[in-house]
Amino acid sequence: MWPGAIVTPQNTLVPSFLLDDIFFGVPTRLQAGVNYGNTLSCIRTVYRRESVFGFFKGMSFPLASIAVYNSVVFGVFSNTQRFLSQHHCRDPEASRSRTLSDLLLASMVAGVVSVGLGAPVDLIKIRLQMQTQPFREANLALKPRAVALGKQPVYQGPVHCIATIVRTEGLAGMYRGVGAMLLRDVPGYCLYFIPYVFLNDWITPEACTGPNPCAVWLAGGMAGAISWGTATPMDVVKSRLQADGVYLNKYKGVLDCISQSYQKEGLKVFFRGITVNAVRGFPMSAAMFLGYELSLQAIRGDHTVTNP
């Protein structure tokens, strides 16, 4: 099911990204913001303060890179998995078999690569979204002078945000929260690709030699819901670390963020946004896998997708 091509047409990825971006600002604010009672309260507050455009804040930079990001991640997984399969057995027919260990290792490699590409993109998006968080409410213990600094947005746009971070924090600042992102994405992609492969094989009728749209859609959606739901605890930590630094630095690292969050808000804080994550994960991933499989089928000009 996984061809070796890395090319993925951008027009198949943009709709799923737009769907993702509508929901992305909600869990980010729930996880890293304050005074949002629940999901509906967060949606109402964002809409009241920033109108509908608030849900798309920070979208331009990720939109420009989403095609490359997903193409590389999907390509790394498929080619790594193919390499491992062929390494075990050089017989072309035998190399078609897939083992759990091969899928696991390929998913982990894809997760590591995704962090290298996605950490700066996530950082910019979260910084642009969280700078609209009411500064006085978020930092009641600060002195009046520090509070006054938060009256105006720190960043005027993605380019200014990048320049400001590099100037004040160095290039390493673009990878703030990378440790938490690794802890989220490496197991997250294992629970993304592996359930998809097995669910798709299980659902697809035996007589079908190519990708079955219904099976791909359902398997992709279920895999996305599983992956995003289980990734929520580390997603909370990642969001807080990346939002940290807009006005001040609160956390010293992953363990400090976990410790402070638990001491102040209890265990439930690590499950903030889990419903939104799981709900958005289904349609987003269903559209992603379906667009990927069908676009590759169209590019190949045939009706079969060869297993690695």
TrEMBL record:
Its main location: mitochondrion. Coiled coil: none annotated. It comes from the Eukaryota. GO terms for cellular component: mitochondrial inner membrane. It is found in: Mitochondrion inner membrane. It is a multi-pass membrane protein. Belongs to the mitochondrial carrier (TC 2.A.29) family. GO terms for molecular function: transmembrane transporter activity. This is Solute carrier family 25 member 48. InterPro entries: MCP_dom_sf, MCP_transmembrane, Mitochondrial_Carrier. It comes from Canis lupus dingo. Keywords: Membrane, Mitochondrion, Mitochondrion inner membrane, Repeat, Transmembrane, Transmembrane helix, Transport. Solcar repeats lie at residues 1-83, 98-202, 211-298. Pfam families: Mito_carr.
